Every structure is written in C-alpha cells, then in structure tokens.
Amino acid sequence: MNIIGPDYLIFGVDDVAACTEYLTAWGLKPVNVTESGGLFETLDGTGIIVRHKADPTLPPPLPTSNMLRQQVYGVRAAEDLDAIEAELGRDRRVTRLSDGSIEFKDDHGFELKFQVTIRRELDMPAEKINAPGAPAQRRPNEIGVWEEMPALPRTLSHVVLFVPDIEIAARFYCDRLGFVITDVLTGAGPFLRPRANDDHHTLFFIRTPEYMKGCEHLAFHMGGPTELMVAGTRFVKKGYQSFWGPGRHKFGSNWFWYFNSPLGCHFEYDADMDKHDDTWVAREAPMGAEASQIVLFEMREKWAPGGPPPGAKH
Amino acid sequence: MSDPTALLQHTETRYLLCRASDIGEGEARGFGPLAGSRRKIIVLRRNGVLHAWRDACPHYSTGTPMAWKTDAYMNGDKTHLTCHSHHALFDMETGQCILGPCLGQQLTRVNIVVGDEGDVFVAGPTEEI
Predict the structure, then answer these.
(1) Parallel, antiparallel, or unpaired for β B81-83 and B88-90?
(2) Which of A133, B14, B55, B98 is a good FRET partner for B122, with 20 to 30 A between their CA atoms?
C-alpha cells in the first residue's frame, strides 16, 4: 500500500464566495472555480475542493458543525488501490468509481477516497541559507529576500483530525492502511506518516469529545521559513486572522503559522519538516506549550528604531 | 443632583467603540483592542438591539480571536456569531455556544451604553476585557 498523502480535502461550506476569496488569498490557484465552488490547487496540484454544503454531489456531512466532507489520498499506482480495496473490503463497503478510485469510511465515519495520485513532481530549490563553516548556498550577489519574492504553498502537507478515540483511529490507519507512528503527544495523540512518504507526518489526531469530530487543521508546505513568514505577513496585512504563530514545532521540527478560516478549521503554512525512515523510534512527550514548540513569535506591525531626536521640532 | 465633576471624570474614562449607526441589522464588527487588552470587542445588532461580546472564543481558556478576516464574525448563513477556528456557533443575543467545540459555554458580554449623540461606549470597568 504505497499511500503518499492527501491529494485533496473536500469541504461543504456555507459561503462559497468567502472561501473562494480566502483560498485565493492563501496562495492557491483556482481551477475551474465557479459560483458553486471548485478546486484550489498548490504548485504540485494537490489542494482544497469546496462546494456549497447543499451540493448533492458532496459526500455526506459529519454529524458535527465541521465542514470536512472527504479526504482524498493519493497512492503510487493502481495496484495500491487493489491492495487497499482487498484489505478494507473484508469488513466494509468499498465503492469502486469509474475512474478507478475507491471510497469507504474509516472507523470513525470519516469519508475517505484513494486514487492514483494527481500530484505533479516539483523541481524547485529549498530556501537557501549561508552560514559560517558550511558551503554558501547562495552564490555571490544572489540575494535572500526581496519585496515581491514568491511565497506560494507547494503542496498539501497534512491534515489533523479531532477524533473521540485515539486507539480506534491509530489502529485503523496503522493496521489497515500501513501508516507508521513517528511521535506521540500524550494527552493529544500520535503523528502518522504513510509508507510512501518520509515526511514526519501527514496525519495527526487530537482526542476530543464526539461533538467535535472533524478537521482541526490542514497544512501546506512552503519553501522554507522565510517563505512561511512572508506569506503569513502578507496574509495578515490583507486582514486575515492569525491564530497561532509563527513558530517552530518540536516534533516534526516544522515551522508553523496557523490562521482562522471560513472553512471551519485552521489553515497552516508549514516549512522544513523532518524526514524519517523505518529505523526511527517514536518519541513521546506530554502535550503542552513546552512540548509543542521550540519558539513562538507573534506578528507586529513593521517598526524600526529611528526618527527625529528627542525634543526636535516637527 | 449629581456632581458635574464626577460626571466629567466618568466620561473621560469611557471607551468609545463606534457609532450606533455603524452597525446595521444582523451585522457585526470588531473594535479595539482597548489599551492593555489583547482582544477586540465585537459589536453586533440583532432585532434592533446592540450587543457587545469579547472577541474570545471560550474553547481554549485564554480565549482566541473569532473572525476569519477583519469584521468577518458571522457564519455564511448570517444566523450566528461564529468562531472561525472550529466553526463554533453562538447565539447573537445570549452568547451561548449552540454547536461546536465549546458547546454549552458562553461568550463574555461587554456592557455598553449608547450616548445621546449615538456614540457607543464600554460601560463599567474594562480591566477584564
């Protein structure tokens, strides 16, 4: 089962126009978007699909106020879909669609779809830094930042779910779909990566009451911490609401910046996440402010020392 | 008869939020934060009456800001004050969460007064706001 990670997350929203504005400002590209919604994609083609909550083509809603309707996972090849169908078909209905993709529900009732991934391979440099003692990553005269520098989400990184039972959730994704637990925040839940992705996590669970079941946040990989902070600063300047960050997580080492959204969950820019292989031994730490971040900052308006000397006449 | 000096002092410490005419029926806007506070004050009009709430969703103990964009405090159907962290819906008149992570909890009401000129002020102490 070569599962790579989320290709699309599908939402049934109550204000398509607001979501269109938001997702575009976030840095996603509208693809065939109309008044009834559509796809908003990252640079590699993964992204968010929104439709009005009354759209009959949407999968059914969760029994909560959450707007997530379906998680669409990408796999490497058609054989992976066959393997998933064979495994899940043992105890639940698996629907094979005409395009070869398959749909079923996980053990908490989240709607899942698996397809041969649509993601395009990216060929772009990571953020380059210079440091004493290491070879320079930027050539002489190559500058690091400029006002109009691009800072667009490169790919859909991960999704975080509120689930009532961590054991049930972790068992389902690990035992049935081959995910691996990379680290655990006790009191919240485990970080998971699928077999065909070496990112620290594409999935994380947070234990919550049944009435909160849904998507807590989703995240996009940026080209580096500078892109993350540039994109977030531009977003705040346009009037969007920061929720948490910028900062850098401990588990996963990824930089983060979370924002509120009209999709009923947080949106995160992330950057520079750890990679792991099967030799990694999962760590465990109690959930809390210390465990969840190495540094945390809060944006403020630009300021610089200077100005007229004290007592100067205007 | 009231002491005119006391009235003057009271007026000086009142915090002006907006004009009543700034808030249309079914609309909400955020003002502030007041000096020393981290959170804005949401002023909304429902059935002709102005209500003010601290812009702090009770889901987390510290309270977190609720809009998804400046002044965007309502759900898409414009029926509820909404926290756009996790789509918690609040009754506009009672501040009660009726759906979402903070189900059964309540927003913190900010007492306001509308002056003769139509200015909307925070009434009473603002330390907790």
Answers:
(1) antiparallel
(2) B98
Alpha helices by DSSP H, listed for chain A, are: 16-26, 78-88, 166-171, 225-237, 289-292
- Yes or no: say if A241 and A299 are a contact pair by the CB < 8 Å rule: no
The range of the structural domain enclosing residue B40 comes to: 4-122
Q: Which position has the token pair 């961590």? A: A166
Chain A within 8 Å of B113 (Cβ-Cβ)? no
- CB contact (8 A) between residue A216 and residue B86: yes
**B128 belongs to a structural domain:** no
Q: Do A239 and B64 touch (CB under 8 A)?
A: no
Taking domain A3-121+153-296, whether its CATH number is 3.10.180.10 is answered by: yes
Residues of B in contact with A259 (CB under 8 A): 68
Beta strands B28-31 and B41-46, pairing class: antiparallel
Q: How far from A180 is each of A172, A195, A198, A202, A239, CA to CA, in Å?
A: 11, 7, 10, 10, 39
Residue B7's H or E segment, with its range, is helix B4-13
Please report, in tens digits, the pLDDT of each residue of chain B (129 residues total).
344 444 444 455 678 999 999 999 999 999 999 888 889 999 999 999 999 999 999 998 889 999 999 999 999 999 999 999 999 999 999 999 999 889 999 999 999 999 999 999 998 665 555
Q: List, edge to edge, every strand of the sheet that includes B119-122.
A: B15-19, B119-122, B112-114
Domain with B22 in it: what CATH number? 2.102.10.10
Beta carbons of B126 and B37 less than 8 angstroms apart: yes
CA distance B49 to chain A (A): 26
Sequence-ordered list of residues with C-beta below 8 angstroms from that of A112, at least 6 positions apart, any chain: A70, A71, A72, A73, A103, A104, A105, A106
List the single residue in A with minimal CA-CA distance to B99. A65
A 47-76 → B contacts, CB under 8 A:
64-67
ipTM value of the model? 0.91
